[in-house]
Amino acid sequence: MAFVGLEPLRNLARMQDEMARLLRDAFESVEGTSTSTTAGLWAPPVDIIEHGDDLVLVADLPGVSRDDIDISVENRTLTLSGERKPPEEYQDSTVYRTERAYGKFTRTFALPASVDVSRITAEYHDGVLRVILPKAEEARPRKIEIRS
Q1: Global pTM exceeds 0.85
Q2: Label partner for 58 (CA 20 to 30 A): which of 45, 69, 87, 129?
């Protein structure tokens, strides 16, 4: 029986790194950003759940100041945008490796007709943004009485 080491996994990791580099280079040439390998190339991960009479959008935004987050609604489209700035200590330092992404981000979400856009609220705590999207009264389930 031949022993196969981790070489296939190394090759897979190299291919993944190469694909990431190619995509990064492609976006940098389009956006004209070449100062940071990750500038403008990140989007916060988002979960959308239904909780009771609300839809809740939960976004991970570690390291983003509340003042650097913008949430808006226009034509039933929710837009979440902002910027994660690199730490000040990076400014006058030589950075040998950075895996955390920095820069501006924008995420947009089409809202269903069942959301009451006039009652949307948001909370931000410990790097987690929660946007509460209440269902419109007419979209909530209700019991229909049967008359005899």
Answers
A1: no
A2: 87
Q: For residue range 63-111, what is the model confidence (pLDDT) as tens digits?
A: 999 999 999 999 999 999 999 998 888 888 888 888 888 889 999 999 9
Residues with Cβ within 8 Å of residue 102, at least 6 apart in sequence: 36, 38, 39, 42, 84, 85, 86
Residue 3 lies in a domain: yes
Higher pLDDT, 109 or 9: 109
pLDDT at 106: 92
Domain range for 25 is 1-34
**CATH number of the domain enclosing 123:** 2.60.40.790
Is residue 92 domain-shared with residue 115, that is, in the same domain? yes
In a domain, 146, yes or no: no
Question: Are residues 29 and 2 part of one domain?
Answer: yes
Same domain, 20 and 78: no
